[in-house]
Amino acid sequence: MKEFLVRENRILSALLEVSKVLNSSFDLDKNLFRTMHVLGEFLEMERGSVFLLDQNTKELRIVAAHGLTKDQIEKGKYKIGEGIVGRVLERGSPMIIPDVGEEPLFLNKTGSRMSRSGISFLCVPIKFKGESIGVLSADKIFRDKTILIDEDVRVLEIVASIIAQYVILWKHYRESEQEREHLRLELKGKYSLPNIIGNSDKMQEVFESVYRVANSKATVLLYGESGTGKELIAKAIHYMSPRSKEPFIKFNCASIPEGLLESELFGHEKGAFTGAIVTRKGRFELANSGTILLDEIGDLPVTLQPKILRVLQEKEFERVGGEKTIKVDVRLIAATSRNLEELVLKGKFREDLYYRLNVVPIFMPALRERKEDILPLTEHFLNRFNEENRKAISISPKALKILAGYNWPGNVRELENAIERIVVMSNGKSIEPVDLPLNLKVHSSRDILHKESLSSGIEEMERSSILHALEETGWIQAKAARILGITSRQIGYKMKKYAITSSQAV
Ligand SMILES: Nc1ncnc2c1ncn2[C@@H]1O[C@H](COP(=O)(O)OP(=O)(O)OP(=O)(O)O)[C@@H](O)[C@H]1O
Ligand SMILES: [Mg+2]
User: Fold this and answer.
1) pLDDT by residue (tens digit) across 3-51?
2) Residue 64, Cβ neighbours under 10 Å: how many?
């Protein structure tokens, strides 16, 4: 009796150990090997082997074995129906060879059993949903042929069924891994630029142009609304070009009065005008052998345009008040949020300069035209500002939905600023709709207010945007209604619905 209990205990411990091992990870070879080791340790089963059917070759191959050398494992291959292992797979039921020494079917392919007497060979199918996917086998050294063999087979069958589950899970896992790897490789072919987010087709086109022009000295003209990333792309072109170690100089043509522009761009000699007490280099000289970004080129006065054209074509100019001709080698990137062609038609921009600049035009899409980039951009900025502020704030799906639905007139810069402000101000763990800037919520609730079926989440959002709008306008309902894009009558109704009263004013 005592011996029976000890044995029972061992079996349970073995099964527990097997399930622990197979629950630990998806390292198939390692875990099946450890499982075979458990069989040896707890149940005195030697040379435990797992064979799996290779669906391509229709061959059974050892994937894990305990007590066999690599060479022996290599040799252990069976066709369906071949030998005992092959038959067990074919029939889907266990086979026991009480004494391998007496059994002609026993092929001993691995050559691992020097002496074949005194060994029972136990072999059970590994089945999933009634179909054999492999075979589990083990040797049992017997002292008395009749003792407990049935029980050993039962235990092996349980182990085989745990292995079956594991192998199926592993196959799914491997397939999804392969899919991921495949996707990764596919994506690798795509363009990427450090710290610039843009998976949308429109941004991918931009990236492609960047790659194409970076190596040349071609003039690039960046079109795009404010905040779309024109400067970012100009820098990317510079840092990917052979000029990357040379200066990158940026100048906004709309930033200073017309009278000062020429000297800013081309420098001046001492005494050129009142206040010119020293000789000063202009931006073109500072950018020599590097790149200059002329932002808002559409604001360049017509009087200055010939001088820019000359730098581009002859690579030379004179400082204001100077006679000496200065030679420079500068790559020009121009950016504009205005329609240059229209300016040309109106006579405000020289046609020859326009064509000289427009060698490679790149169009930066507005963020609302590539809404799929909103999420990755949000993540990107969230990571950055979390890091800068030593916070770990995440964003709730509801809040993300509002971000994704907003039309972002200020483009990426507006999104960047919004996220920074939220991260800096937030004390919580997660960004909720109430934490979002007012204009965002107002915008998104404008559409929502007219929809009849409001889920509780949306109702909460609606309630809070009405409250915010009222607070913003000092509780003047007509003004609040205007912000929200609804009528005074509607806001009155909504306030009643949500029981909003001015006593809630903070
Ligand atoms: N694709 C992007 N990925 C990551 N950050 C971006 C991206 N596009 C823009 N940004 C960020 O948004 C901000 C605005 O970009 P940038 O200054 O390049 O825009 P711009 O088109 O030059 O705007 P403006 O016309 O107002 O000068 C910057 O802080 C920039 O880092
Ligand atoms: Mg800019």
Assistant:
1) 666 778 888 899 999 999 998 888 888 999 999 999 988 888 888 999 9
2) 23
Residues 453-473 have pLDDT tens digits of 444 555 666 788 888 888 888
Q: How far is the centre of ligand 1, averaged over its atoms, from the C-alpha of 230 (Å)?
A: 6
- Closest ligand 1 atom to residue 235 Cα is 18
Shortest-distance ligand to the CA of residue 412: 1
Q: Which two tokens stand for residue 347?
A: 């006579």
* Whole-number Cα distances in Å, 156 to 31, 64, 119, 133, 458: 16, 15, 16, 15, 57
Distance CA 471, CA 481 (A): 12
Q: Per the structure block, which two tokens stand in for 280? A: 């000063």
- CA R_g for the chain: 38
pLDDT at 452: 39
Q: What is the pLDDT of residues 143-167, one digit of tens each?
A: 665 556 788 899 999 999 999 999 9
- For the CA atoms of 60, 61, 64, 68, what is the dihedral angle to 10 degrees? 110
What stretches of 244-305 adopt beta strand conformation (E)?
248-252, 267-268, 280-281, 291-295
Residue with tokens 């092929």: 107
Nearest CA residue ID for atom 18, ligand 1: 229
Q: Is residue 384 lining ligand 1, measured as CB closer than 6 Å? A: no
C-alpha 251/C-alpha 75 separation (Å) is 73
Strands 325-327 and 280-281: unpaired
Determine whether the shortest distance from the Cβ of 60 to ligand 1 is under 6 A: no
- Output the pLDDT for position 453: 40
Beta-ladder partners of 250: 293
The atom of ligand 1 lying closest to the CA of 224 is: 21
Ligand 1: nearest atom to the Cα of 295: 27
Mean pLDDT check: name the lowest of 235-239, 311-315, 340-344, 477-481. 477-481
Give me the phi and psi of 94, to 5 degrees please: -65, 155
134 ligand 1 Cβ < 6 A: no
Identify the residue whose C-alpha is closest to ligand 1 atom 24. Answer: 226
Ligand 1 near 231 CB (within 6 A): yes
Q: Which residue owns the Cα nearest ligand 1 atom 13? A: 413
